[in-house]
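Need the bound structure for L-homoserine, inputs here:
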Amino acid sequence: MAVYTDVTDEALYAFLTTYDLGRARSFKGIAEGVENTNYLLHCESGYFILTLYEKRVNPTELPFFIGLMEHLAAQGLSCPLPVKRRDGGALGELAGRPAALVTFLDGVSARKPEVHHCLETGRALARLHLAGQGFGLRRENALAQPHWRPLFETSRAGADTVTPGLAGEIARELDTLEKSWPKNLPRGIIHADLFPDNVFFIGKTLSGLIDFYFACEDFFAYDLAICLNAWCFEPDGAFNATKGRAMLQGYESLRPLEAEERAALPILSRGAAMRFLLTRLYDWLNVPPGALVKPKNPLDYLARLRFHQAISAPSEYVWRP
Ligand SMILES: Nc1ncnc2c1ncn2[C@@H]1O[C@H](COP(=O)(O)OP(=O)(O)OP(=O)(O)O)[C@@H](O)[C@H]1O
Ligand SMILES: N[C@@H](CCO)C(=O)O
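Answer from helper R.:
Posting the output first, comments after.
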């Protein structure tokens, strides 16, 4: 459960006096997520999500995230909409953290993603990439390839306590990624964390996307590689090419990949696995005292990384013997 910051009733009531949402009826910490503190707030006017931004969110970048959700919603993409205070602002402070309220999105995430979820998610990812094109603000990817080695250095000393040899294996892979990372692929606004918990469905219909707090500018195909990692592996670690095919089909139904993007999928997928291996490793080794959070297992992403290392052709993501 990700509740790093407690909010007292008094602090909440004071915060809510600046909005026109009516009286609070209930307020409770949300059991999912690892990055930010989230509460479900039920007010007289409806349900809202209150987010207190934690360590990986730079407060100066919050206008980008808020503006992006507003832009995407205006383009017809279903995502949370920041709620404005009476003074017109959407960003505030609560319990010493930057905080904002967003609208509650109906739907549930797929606990066990199936092929049709992958198809719909691929389509939604392409829709997001296309819808982001007119957005005026920019944000560099703070977790892009050049940042992986410094991030690794913060965990290097503890890495082998997670599994023997991990530090050496990561260091060698970082060498390869530094040499082989693509320099010039189509780029724009990407979600950068479109995991199953950030995609909602009502029945088989995708009802919306949440959690834009890693969104940034980077290669579109890297975002797709993040999704291949997050959606197309089975709990036992096996890659499911049927899901990979559905993910790519969904994506390409709206935004066909260029030949260079397709060719880069194996290295982008290795990079995506490395990014989540590194953040998970850091979080595994640095659980804040008293935080209600269950860190995610870094080794799931070591297994994915090894899978991508063995890929000899991008076609293996859509067809495997
Ligand atoms: N707008 C929303 N509407 C409905 N539920 C939401 C909304 N935003 C967040 N949630 C709920 O809160 C949970 C955590 O939110 P979110 O994924 O943004 O947190 P996080 O800590 O950034 O998580 P992650 O580990 O995915 O980065 C979601 O899984 C979902 O259950
Ligand atoms: N989606 C991430 C957590 C948020 O960065 C993970 O599963 O590691």
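Comments: The pocket of adenosine-5'-triphosphate (ligand 1) is lined by residues 2, 30, 32-36, 38, 49, 80, 102, 104-105, 193, 195, 197-198, 210-211, 213 (CB under 6 Å). The CA atoms of residues 48 and 104 lie 5 Å apart.
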